[in-house]
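thread: overnight batch results

M.L. [08:02]
morning all. the overnight job finished for the chain we discussed friday. pasting input first so we're all looking at the same thing
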Amino acid sequence: MKNLKKLIILTGPSGVGKGTVVKEILGKDKDISLSISATTREPRVGEKEGENYYFLNQEKFKKMIEQNLFLEWAEFAGNYYGTPLSSVKEKINNGLTVLLEIEVEGAKQIKEKFPESLSLFLLPPDKKELERRIRNRGTEKEEAIKKRLFRANYEMSLSNQFDFELINHNVDETAERIIKIIRS
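M.L. [08:03]
and the structure it wrote out:
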């Protein structure tokens, strides 16, 4: 893939506000395009096929892994997540900057394969705020919340492996800072 400076990785723990920040970025800069990930998890209320995710069954996802059709993939909280390679290539070839909003393991895979990509790690103001955000979603049972919080501690310990660490205090300000980083 040529021009990988146009490949931007945004990662951070579950509940840090990646999706909200991404929406803000996309509303402010039309030259940035979101890569749509594939997942085997069930859609959340309001999520749309091909807009939020490509929702696949495990059999189809595993077949795509075997055929090397993902830029990266990871298993997280009992589900698979991955970035289809073809759509990323197409967007970059059309002159867009591609933003990947992905889990930490997938981000590490891409950074290893494509070190010239730009990687951003989003952090919460503190652990209490992260827990509040996860709980306020109201989408998961207590056991899943505990797994996400445990995982978040591990993921945050890796934040220094990325090009930039940003604390998400305010969505608008965080989006503006990310756009400035991408443009510089």
